[in-house]
Amino acid sequence: RYHVREALDLETLASLLRAAGHQVQLIYDPDTFGVTDNVLQIAPLARWLADDRATLDRIVHAQPDVVIFSVLSNTYVWCREMAAGVKQNTSAPVVFTGLHPSLVPQHVMRTPAVDYTIAGETEGVVGPLLEALVSGADVSSVKNLWYRVDGQVLATDRAELVDLDALPLPDKDLFRPFVSHRYSYSAMVSRGCPYSCTFCEETCSKKLYGGKYFRRKSVDTVIRELVAAKRKYGYREVIFKDSYLSGSKPWLSELIQRYRSEIRVPFKCFCTISGFDDETAGMLKQGGCYSIEFGLQTWNDQIRRDVLKRRETAQDAFEALAHCDRHRLRYDVDHMFNL
Fold it and tell me: Per-residue pLDDT tens for 246-257?
């Protein structure tokens, strides 16, 4: 599926690499009804619809100099098998990136078909890695990298966090013809999350970089992307896919003011129960928000506190939803069963 967070990372990466003079091609497997389908997983249908041979043929036909896999934990086995096919049919080095390789790079490097693993943010790393591979230079100066020398697995230093405002606009055409941005435009204006919920991928990412991992783009950067995308796609709504859009009232207030005057389409976002008050609800409604998704996960205060490490209470949730009701804001609540 078009996993928005991973897809947005790839869209930005494509822009960076093209700006550096590289040719980029996306080979996309939609995994219909498969392990990445967060709506409907039907294993027999997924196996029937899968065509790994065709996917591998597309990679080989592209005659790549380097093949980069964006790897999730639930796609790791598939990516590993596909990488083996790449190595059998091409001489291209294979690079694994993404959350799973970042968390367990040493384990990933046990796969013979994986030549390099990027553990951490990729935007400041892939360019130098490709330059080293093209020139035959030593890769030991490339940060966030795991690689082999004479069969021994080595690791380089951790890279500095990426300046989100310095990144180019994402190449939203990368996933054409699989995804249309004309109706709904997905954007992320931050990276990470200040909370440390036990179940969340953001907590895993924060373990790599610490508390500074959470940061937001400037409002100027956000509006620049949305204006350019509206001019190109004419989208009818925006969905902010960040962990939460609330939190900093000065930043949110500036965003809402610019959004109302320059974008002027409805939007949906995620918010946390903690810190959500009447003023925040009013700002969001004023800016054109039509729905908020809250991550509550359970109405049981003890489970939420002791198992999930969440600080808000059920009473806090009722109050947050009441603020939405007063401003006629729709909302939905994430819930996990069988905790």
Answer: 888 999 999 999
